């Protein structure tokens, strides 16, 4: 929804999922997967279950863990759709 609104107001942004690289403008990271609104073909794994979430969490060098670790160091971050009570997120933010 945020990306649709940014497109509507002609704001430059870049959607990041998987190991895609930012290309300028505002970066919107989908660290738990991405489903495009326009039905385009996108290679992205979606984390649906707690088991999947913990599997990724255990992979120290997974893209999503690294992105969550480094993003707060590079710029201001706005977290949407999660609880800041999540111990895994709090651990990553403590490291950052």
Topology:
Layout: H1 2-8, E1 13-17, E2 26-30, H2 50-57, H3 63-74, H4 87-95
Parallel strand pairs: 1-2
Helix pairs in contact: 3-4
- The total of beta strands comes to 2
**Helix percentage:** 25-40%
Distance between the termini: 28 Å
SSE sequence, one letter per element: HEEHHH
The rough form would be described as globular
The percentage of residues in β strands lies in: 5-15%
Query: Structural class, please?
Result: alpha+beta
Radius of gyration: 14 Å
Tally of individual helices: 4
The major beta sheet can be summarized as: 2 strands, parallel
Strand order of the largest sheet: 1-2
- Unreliable spans: none
What value does the average pLDDT take? 80
Structure description:
- The chain starts with a helix and ends with a helix.
- With 96 residues, it is an alpha+beta fold.
- A two-stranded parallel ribbon has the order 1-2.
- Helices cover 38% and strands 10% of the residues.
- The protein has helices at residues 2-8, 50-57, 63-74, 87-95, and strands spanning 13-17, 26-30.
- The mean pLDDT is 80.
Question: How do you describe this structure in short?
Answer:
With 96 residues, the protein is α+β, with helices and mostly antiparallel strands. 38% of the residues lie in helices and 10% in strands. It has helices spanning 2-8, 50-57, 63-74, 87-95; strands spanning 13-17, 26-30.
Structure keywords:
single chain; 96 residues; alpha+beta; two-stranded parallel sheet; globular
């Amino acid at each position: 929804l945020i990306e649709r609104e940014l497109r509507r107001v002609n704001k430059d942004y870049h959607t990041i999922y998987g190991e895609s690289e930012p290309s300028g403008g505002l970066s919107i990271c989908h660290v738990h997967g991405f489903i495009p609104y326009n039905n385009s073909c996108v290679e992205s794994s979606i984390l649906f279950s707690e088991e999947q979430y913990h599997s990724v969490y255990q992979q120290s060098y997974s893209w999503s863990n690294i992105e969550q670790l480094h993003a707060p160091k590079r710029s201001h971050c706005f977290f949407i759709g999660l609880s800041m009570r999540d111990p895994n997120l709090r651990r990553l933010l403590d490291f950052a």
